Amino acid sequence: MKNGLRRRVMAGETVTAAWLELGSPEVAEIMVRSGWDVLVIDCEHGAVGLEDGLNLIRAVEAAGGEAMIRVPDAREATLKRALDRGARSLLVPMVNSAEMAREVAGFCRYAPMGRRGYAAPIVRASGYGAWTDYAAQANEEVFVAVQIEHVDVIPDIAEIAAIPGIDMGFIGPNDLAGSMDRLERLDDPAVVEAITGIEATAAAHGLTLGTIEGQRDYGALAKAGYRLVIGPNDVMLLSGAARAAAERRSGLV
């Protein structure tokens, strides 16, 4: 029940992960057994809602992996339910201000650190009461990453870095570019400047960063200080393999 992903990140390791978009427990097992020991279950853009996404944690863990949940929103009820149902690592989208980040942090931690609602003895997070000191340890086991994906939040990066309970700022480059009217133009100088500015501020104020693999590969992102890099997703892996297989038969049809 300990959060291995949080420990790895906080120890300075750059952890690589893959997205789980299709919502299939079989696909989750295949991906973990194929070497992706951290999967991010996407309940924002993926095929499953929060409840089915939380059930996928079982498949990931049973295969020997660790699961992170991208919740669909930052509402208190959403975050509380995700944590109670056994999500230890959360990726929270569209956190566009320090005030919003402060609320997210509070929703995810028990008092006195936060205001998470208490039901520890009866929830999956505590093994339905088997982890008897869960409430005493939960604040140290939860891992919360807030997505930095709007130009409006850039002036608040230093303030977010100082918020207890925020473990990572996760840059969403395409949404960030879109908020600057440069969607899918990640090499635009203004977008590059915005991202490098976030990196510099985060480094200066001790905010751990994560992002997606894309314009820069895993090695370059690790050297730039990123400690979580999410790469491929099951949709693209399947469609890419299907296209490649179809191309191999092109001489026969």
UniProtKB/TrEMBL annotation:
Q: Which domain of life is it from?
A: Bacteria
What GO cellular-component annotations does this UniProt entry give? cytoplasm
Recorded hits in InterPro entries, A to Z, give: Aldolase/citrate-lyase_domain (IPR005000), HpcH-HpaI_aldolase (IPR050251), Pyrv/PenolPyrv_kinase-like_dom (IPR015813), Pyrv_kinase-like_dom_sf (IPR040442)
Keyword Protein transport among record annotations: no
Per UniProt, residues of the HpcH/HpaI aldolase/citrate lyase domain are: 18-212
Q: Which UniProt keywords apply?
A: Lyase, Metal-binding
List the Gene Ontology MF annotations in alphabetical order. Answer: aldehyde-lyase activity; metal ion binding
Q: Do the record's keywords include Iron? A: no
Annotated SUPFAM superfamilies = Phosphoenolpyruvate/pyruvate domain
Q: Please give the family membership noted in the entry.
A: Belongs to the HpcH/HpaI aldolase family.
PANTHER family cross-referenced by the UniProt entry:
2-KETO-3-DEOXY-L-RHAMNONATE ALDOLASE, PHOSPHOENOLPYRUVATE CARBOXYLASE FAMILY PROTEIN
| Name under which the protein is recorded | 4-hydroxy-2-oxoheptanedioate aldolase
Organism the protein comes from: Tranquillimonas rosea
The root-end lineage is: Bacteria, Pseudomonadati, Pseudomonadota, Alphaproteobacteria, Rhodobacterales
